[in-house]
Protein 1
Amino acid sequence: MVRKLRVALGHALLYGLLCGIALLTLFPFLWTLSTALSTAGGVFTFPPRLIPERPGLANFVEVVQALPVGRYFLNSVLLTVYGVLGTLLVCSLAAYPLARMDFPGRDAILAALLGTLLLPNEAGFVVNFLTLGRLGLVNTYTGVVLPSLASVVGIFLLRQAYLAIPQELLDAARVDGASELRIWARVVLPLSRPALAALGILSSVAYWNAFIWPLVVLRDPDRYPLAVGLLYLQGLFAHNTRLIAAGTVLAMLPILAMFVFAQRSFMRGLEGAVR
Amino acid sequence: MRGSRALSLAPARSLAGPRLRTTLTAYLFLAPALVLLGAFTFAPLAFGTLLAFADYNVLAPPRWVGAENFRTLARDPAFWVALRNSLRYLLVVPAIQVAALALALLVNRRLPGITLFRAAYYVPVITSFAVAGLMWNWMYAQHGVVNWVGLRLGLLARPFDWLNHPTLALYAVMLVTFWKGIGYYMVLYLAGLQAVPQELLEAARVDGAGRVQAFLLVTLPLLRPTLLLCTLLSTLAAVKVFEEVYVMTGGGPFGQTTTALLYVYQKAFQEFRFGLAAAAGLFVAALGLGLSLLYVRLFREGGLRPW
């Protein structure tokens, strides 16, 4: 009886601790949501309020009227899809020979790829911008995604997955006279679906959230993705906190929805990157 | 690799030997990635190094000026402030790692609803810096939550204007980096912890080791590669910290929160002094590389195998 009580008490304490930490990590979101839903009262009240005052969607309506939110949203979707598909293609092609072929220069390439992980590559963004200017890609989505398509982390993640494919399957396909490209498309890719999904999710978060590089590359505000549009909104309505909060919620929602649906793949993808 | 032997079974249609064909095929697969990496990762290193010795504002062709840019940097107090801030930012690394490992240990158990808590701690990671910066601007406002908590706990005598304070602003931004980073490293440590064989821990307990001892003597040594990886990633992120500062303070007040990479950005895209920006960028790259090599050295006995 006493033991049972102690275990129960231990669990209660543990859950209390877990809830307390969750409140700390989630508080900014809860507060922003509450502010976005409030249609009256002061924004900054002591004590801070988590229950919206006169809740309503008026702020969201106002944001959508003040800014081309729909367009920004579509821009973000376009940019993300473009970036993710490109990343998956480039990385899944490159990982195949690095995992399953023996050729001169392979180890040197692997070492060079690892080396790039040790360098803060952002330091190169001055030169990258000039390069894009040379190629005539300033103010284009190609210019935004091109420098990050060949993700080194992505190549290693997929290489790990390819290494686990049984050699017999590849040999059988070769005996049947399949070309390497066909083997990659028909055998290797279908067997690496979890890793591809994980990389897809990781890179979609990165492209959806990117704002510095789009801000540098894109000149035309009509082409801005949501994240950049949000900062633009802050400039326009510096003092209307409720409005900016509504915009912030709108920018967060798609990523949160994706996370709720694909939470397993998120966590797994990270683990795959470690091993 | 068994691949090359298997390939010789394939019908050799070309006159070239199978070895040459494999090599050609391999490089065809690698071509897109190698071209992109060459153009946007390796070329900037080489070209950026050259640019660091030139005067270039896009309008006129680059002019060779020798070490002039580096002399200009050395004379610019703002550059030293930026470098100092980037080094100060390294303080966030041990803080994040200790907190993330503690959190990983806390959620590394079978409990109803534990995945929900793991997910909750991970949400800041998938938040863009644009969103995180805006939210925390409100948290730090004169009448914001941070001040309210500080006043209630008696830690503050009066509300602070955190993000406009010349010394505290940088630490305020650091807290955001900390908040955003914990979940990410927690998941990495969790993966490491789940790879620790249970038998070893049980054996240690049988030998009379307490929980703390078992952790120190069994778990920690096995976590070494994960520790190195996380510390390395977190350090590089700290050296090139930029977005959160850009969104929250813009480097202000009076440039007191400018970081090295923000300085590069300002020189390039606000003042169009690309040579000077490249020289400062070279500093950031060297700093990151130096720290990386130092870590790999320190951890080497741990048998680091990234793949």
Protein 2
Amino acid sequence: MTDIAITLTVNGVVRQVEVPGRRLLSDCLRHDLGLTGTHVGCEHGVCGCCTVLLDGEPVRSCLTFAVTVDGHDITTVEGLAAPDGAMSPVQRAFAECHGLQCGFCTPGFLCTVTALLRDNPSPTGEEVLEGISGNLCRCTGYQNIVKSVHRAAEIMAEET
Amino acid sequence: MKPAPFEYHAPRSLGEALDALAEAGADGKVLAGGQSLIPMLNMRLAAPAHLIDINRLTELATLDVEPGGVRVGALARHAQVERSEPVAAAQPLLRQALRLVAHPVIRNRGTVVGSLVHADPAAELPAVLALLGGSVRLARRGATRDVTAAAFFTGPMESATGPGELAVSALFPLLPARSGTAFREVARRHGDYALAGIAALVSLDDDLRITVARVACVSVGPVPVLVDVTEVCGHRPPASAGWDAAARAVQDRIEPEADIHASAGYRRHLIGVLAEQALRDAARAALDA
């Protein structure tokens, strides 16, 4: 059960790390690479807190082994802002509409919604609900989060 | 919750994967999408000594519409199959069912063939394969065999895939002419496992009378429960078919169990309602076909 050397491009930076085969990508990001923005909730794929972008597509980092994605691109919540630190439209919308709340589920929502709006810049109400249905928030009834997604779509439309 | 240690194998070709599986024997497990397997590893419901990760075998990420049906390779993700227009045109039931499989993020990673091998009686894709009379192609070192859906699902979470075997693809046959399909289910929350679900297929003849009507039931037996209700519906046009009698016939054929989510009686009730709705939907689609 020797450790395996892998190379990940995380938020545009090439990172090399040695991990056991059983290291979950969520733990690799948090513990091996120090990127604690990715949160770990249920660790069996239900809550969506650990969602990151793998080659641009949202995936559960707790249901992915780090060794499986050797050589691939990962974007975590730390990588959503512009290089100069300016928040992305999705991040600004969540702040503006109070979609953050306690913040625990936020990294997963931000990654999921970033990909959702990239693929569908003007989603219907139903498409928003379907898009975020795999992310759980335990604070409230999701109203502010849904508002944030629509607001992010507006901001993106205004800025293009 | 962390997986127990295992020996990790990252084969670069199908041959390497089959060699690793042959050596691992009953201690080996295949990792594709991992959306069902990794939760089981995290919760230590499974602790294989060898994990054979086939994610580098891009030769298995295939999706082909063949004369005999839609052939889905072992690495084709749910999302890839769901989004394919040629697949939706050739076999619409796949997209109808895939939209009900978990959540979009899970579908980015999970694989169709993996769902079949996982053989969860509450899952949608085993019911689709059973309803369409499809098959799964299993490879081992030096041999390949095709197993029909009827023989493939052997029990809850059990398939005919033996030690040392890798499910390389599945074939979902095309529909006959003038046929329609539908998938209906009831879940507490969209994307959760269904309390009950129905996949339905209806075919019509040139005079638009029913020639085939059958359903596959989800979550009400150890494996997908296939029920042919052609005779009960009567060889009549859909508008005058005995859909309620067909629904009762389906209810009579199932033996649902109670659990924390629903009583057996409630599941039987749901199956009746869903069977009638799904058969009507499928008949409407057949009229439009």
